[in-house]
Write a structure and sequence with these properties.
With 969 residues, the chain is an alpha+beta fold. The chain is 29% helix and 17% strand. It is built from 24 helices and 32 strands. The strands form ten sheets. A nine-stranded antiparallel sheet has the order 1-6-7-8-9-16-13-12-11. Strands 5-4-10-15-14 form a five-stranded antiparallel sheet, covered by helices on one side. Strand 7 (194-200) and strand 8 (207-214) form a beta hairpin. The longest helix is centred in the middle third of the chain and has 28 residues, at 406-433.
């Protein structure tokens, strides 16, 4: 653990008074209107430069040409079925990515909308796996101020009008609005899940305005954190001598981004709810039979605030009030007619017609007076549908039901509960923000990197089995697809599927769901094509017991460009955030993978890297991901390599299981997943081809660095394997399974000696034991196994001086020799101090890996090196002098700042740093004894292990009888 010394301290990175005048800060310092001292900041007139995407070198392109052709063919094949391939480097977004992002809206798993720091609503991620990045410019906040009996008037959209969609002011659309805000005196302050936009005398010189954006992301709150809603609190301070009438306007388009409004059939209706909440519902009919979405835009009427609405306006002026006419009404009157609340539902829109709605909140602000006006947005899309037919209820429906009209209740509760949310958010954040030992940049970057758990395409279901879409399964015509699982089919149908289940799993699963799903796909009896190969029915829905409380099932994408759910080799890094903040979700994900280990899916898949074919999922192998278009049923959407032959997935599974087991102290969780741990460990025997206890890599990129070839023993995979052996032995001992404890300890002893003898060169561990040109490269991630070992409270894998020496080598070479440590840690460096140019991944800086390396340094008392290493990601990605990757942190970048894969999961590994600084109570209070020393290896076991022949097939899942459990306490 880290020492108690003063950490790598810096002055306030961005003192608030350098962005907002001290007087304005003092005036706004009531009702939460002033931004916090620690926040990420930008002026609204800052340039949002276009980002530069990486490109492969000529030699890399030559090496990957055949892969590229196969991938292109696969992308076209998926498109012919109306699906998006999980990896598609050929289709570019219409809206080029720019340095314009900000804090996203809403809780987790119910669809997300991001908001740029200049105020635009963008990156629409309502339909799972589909992200529309371009902003909907009709969605705006605007202000109208009238003073001195109307002789002084100000009106403006509260965002700079820097967008190519805004044209001549003479048209009837939104270009006719007053885009008067320069942004020179307006600033954005971000501390996820909140953000503040401060207008210091814009557009009215005598008016200070703060807009505070609040979303219900509250650690350990498994209800409110699932809600699709956000609140916007406007704090108004009149510094002038005249009384001011201030009208705030929220406009919203009936759209889920892009050209979604073109489908037609959308309509709006006003509503009045309890407690002064009123607004407009916008009912959106989605394309391709996706579930509908209903938006609620509302404000809260009080004694001092009057709320009116315009349920419908259009852009052209045909059939409805035009955007220009709407604006003129507000500029002249500052409100709409009260009679609009009785207008009822509008006529459905025609194809191509965009319907918009407006909500106005008006108030008087006395000279030197203050006032608060509150708006809220909610979106209700209770069902989430995947492209191959399964539909689930989202998590929040457990509390609000499945009606689209629940948006009214969502927006009402947001407007009446947001202060309680803020109290909980501050209780969580303040201990870190007020810790004077921590660098200022670290404090707000730590929280802001959590944006991904909202904007990363997350899906959070109620945990119940899916409804089956009859259209997606044409052979299923015997039962109603809208119903949940029934008992119409006997459980024996499971045996007829091409899936292996243990008897215990069948008993523990929801038999209705399993039998229904097997019946659905078993009755098809028709073969589908998958990359030119025939496929059979998917595996049944993975049902897992989540302990005493069902917190539902959770999915998050590897990235918005890599559309695979819960990618496990990356979750290895990102999972520290969930473990710390939502541990029940983390355990639920682990149970899903534990169940998946024991399945086999024999459907054929073509692997694009070499063109060979194999089965989709081998029994005993940890899946790379839980799928794309049919998660939980059709895993391993990744098809570049055969991940059943990857060497890091199974050790990473065992390490994550033990870390979570140790960190939570959940003994029942340990018992439940132990059979899968045994199966995953035994599966790896086939890769120990010389019987020395250590696994070997196979001369292709068989691990998370899937373009970086490994030969023989790998520092990365071998180190993970060593750590997994120790973790499995310790877990076996704690669960009372003596046989496996002895077995894994003996293997660990043998493997450790071989690993050090073949890889340790006196200052670090070589990349691999082969003879290639990069075998002696310095890999930043070489001690990933030791990182997890230390994080789990286990004894170190190697002598402490070797660990610190290797980390110091990484710091001096991979960090400091790359632009003075201002980029993060390069994945590979040569012993001569040059970036390893072997492949595109060896020369990249991976953001999440850099955070992981920094956490490892902190765990071994290297505070200066750890924070300096992590600060490189802040400088390059988040600072004003960096590349503009805030709130879209990519997988990695090159030394010249070209990104690869924006909005990526792995940077959540910054929470591994916080985990190192503040380990879980169960780790801190664990007995300081080496449980490995308590495992006695009998002569009989030692002989038996040495005589075991190398296995060539997947292992038996029956690891031990249930009576073997004798828990160690």
């Amino acid at each position: 653990m880290v020492s108690g010394h003063i950490f790598h301290c810096r002055r306030n990175s961005w003192p608030a008074e350098e962005y907002v005048g001290r007087t304005a800060l003092q005036l706004l310092d009531f009702d939460g209107g002033a931004p916090p001292e620690q926040a990420w900041r930008r002026k609204l007139n800052s340039d949002a430069n276009l980002l530069k995407e990486f490109s492969v070198t000529f030699m890399e392109a030559m090496k990957m040409m055949t892969l590229g052709l196969r991938l292109w063919s696969y992308v076209r094949e998926e498109a012919s079925h109306g699906r998006k391939a999980p990896i598609d480097p050929f289709t570019k977004e219409r809206c080029r990515p720019s340095a314009s992002q900000g804090v996203p809206l809403g809780g987790m798993g119910s669809g997300s909308i991001s908001r740029g720091f200049r105020g635009e609503f963008k990156n629409w991620h309502i339909i799972p796996g589909l992200c529309e990045s371009s902003p909907v410019m009709e969605n705006q906040f605007s202000i109208f101020v009238s003073r001195d009996g109307g002789n002084k008037k100000y009106s403006s959209v509260l965002a700079p009008g820097h967008h190519e969609g805004l044209k001549k002011k003479s048209d009837s659309g939104i270009s006719s609005w007053d885009w008067n805000l320069s942004g020179q005196h307006s600033t954005y302050h971000a501390l996820f899940p909140r953000a503040w936009t401060v207008y210091d005398g814009e557009p009215d010189p005598d008016l200070k305005i703060s807009c505070r954006q609040i979303s219900p992301f509250i650690p350990h709150d498994y209800k409110d954190s699932s809600l699709p809603t956000s609140v916007f609190v406007y704090t108004l301070v009149n510094t002038g001598k005249d009384r001011a009438k201030v009208s705030l306007l929220m406009t919203w388009a009936n759209s889920i981004g892009g050209f979604s409004h073109n489908t037609g059939g959308h309509y709006n209706e006003p509503f009045i709810a309890e407690d002064g909440v009123s607004g407009v519902l916008l009912h959106h009919k989605t394309a391709k039979d996706n579930p509908p979405v209903t938006f609620a835009v509302a404000a809260c009427e009080t004694q001092n605030v009057n709320v009116t609405v315009l349920p419908v306006f259009g852009l052209s002026g045909e059939n409805h009030v035009s955007a220009k006419e709407m604006w003129n009404t507000m500029a002249q009157n500052g409100h709409f007619n009260r009679e609009n609340f009785s207008a009822g539902s509008s006529m459905p829109s025609s194809p191509g017609q965009k319907l918009c709605a407006a909500v106005s909140a008006s108030t008087w602000v006395e000279p030197h007076g203050r006032c608060t006006v509150v708006f809220a947005l909610a979106w209700s899309s209770p069902k989430v549908k995947f492209q191959k037919g399964c539909t689930y209820n989202r998590r929040y429906t457990q509390f609000y039901g499945t009606s689209e009209r629940s948006a009214v209740n969502l927006v009402h509760d947001a407007l009446t509960k947001y202060k309680l949310w803020e109290e909980e958010i501050e209780k969580w954040q303040n201990p870190i923000l007020k810790d004077e030992r921590l660098p200022e940049w670290y404090k707000f970057t730590l929280f802001n990197e959590l944006y991904f758990l909202v904007a990363g395409g997350t899906v959070w279901t109620d945990g119940q089995p899916p409804a089956i879409d009859e259209k997606a399964n044409p052979g299923f015509n015997q039962q109603k697809s809208s119903k949940r699982g029934t008992k119409d089919t006997k459980p024996e149908s499971v045996k007829e599927s091409h899936v292996n289940l243990t008897a215990e799993q069948i008993r523990d699963s929801d038999e209705r769901s399993v039998s229904k799903f097997a019946a659905v796909h078993g009755s098809q009896m028709q073969e589908q094509t998958n990359g030119g190969l025939k496929s059979e029915e998917p595996i049944p829905y993975l049902i897992s017991k989540d302990g005493p409380e069902n917190v539902g099932k959770f999915l998050y994408l590897e990235g918005v460009e890599y559309i695979m759910w819960n990618t496990y080799d990356v979750h290895f890094y990102a999972s520290f955030a969930l473990l710390d903040l939502f541990p029940k979700i983390e355990l639920s994900i682990q149970r899903d993978f534990a169940n998946a280990v024991l399945y086999e899916d024999r459907r054929k898949v073509k692997f694009l890297a070499d063109g060979t074919s194999g089965i989709r999922k081998a029994k005993g192998a940890v899946p790379h991901d839980l799928g794309t278009h049919d998660p939980w049923h059709e895993m391993n959407a990744y098809n570049i390599h055969d991940t059943s032959k990857w060497k890091d997935l199974n050790p990473k599974f065992v390490l994550q299981i033990y870390r979570d087991f140790a960190a939570t102290g959940e003994m029942q969780f340990g018992r439940d997943v132990w059979p899968a741990v045994c199966a995953a460990m035994d599966y790896m025997d086939q890769f120990d081809r010389d019987g020395d206890g250590l696994i070997e890599n196979d001369g292709f990129p068989d691990q998370t660095y899937d373009a970086w070839t490994v030969h023989g023993i790998s520092a990365y995979c071998g180190g993970l394997w060593l750590a997994a052996l120790q973790a499995a032995a310790t877990m076996a001992h704690r669960l009372g399974d003596r046989h496996y404890a002895e077995k894994y300890k003996l293997k660990f002893i043998k493997a450790k000696a071989v690993y050090e003898a073949k890889l340790w060169n006196g200052s670090y561990f070589n990349y691999d034991s082969g003879t290639s040109s990069n075998s002696r490269s310095i890999q930043a991630d070489q001690l990933a196994g030791q990182w997890y070992t230390a994080s789990s409270g286990l004894p170190p894998l190697f002598e402490e001086h070797k660990i610190r020496t290797a980390l110091q080598k990484i710091f001096e070479f991979n960090v400091m020799k790359v632009k003075g440590g201002r980029l993060g840690a390069a994945n590979g460096m040569t012993p001569k101090g040059k970036v390893d140019e072997t492949c595109m991944q060896s020369r990249e800086i991976w953001t999440g890996v850099t955070y992981a390396v920094a956490a490892n340094m902190l765990l071994h008392g290297m505070e200066h090196q750890g924070f300096t290493t992590a600060e490189g990601i802040f400088i390059a990605g988040w600072s004003e002098e960096g590349y503009g990757y805030w709130f879209q942190t990519p997988e990695g970048w090159t030394t010249d700042g070209h990104y690869r894969s924006l909005v990526y999961m792995r940077p959540l590994a910054i929470w591994a740093i916080q985990y190192a600084l503040s380990p879980p109570k169960a780790i801190l209070e664990a007995p300081k004894v080496n449980l490995m020393d308590r495992i006695h290896i009998s002569p009989h076991m030692a002989r038996a292990i040495s005589e075991i022949s190398i296995r060539k097939v997947a292992p038996d899942n029956r690891c031990f009888p249930s009576s073997a459990f004798k828990c160690e306490c």
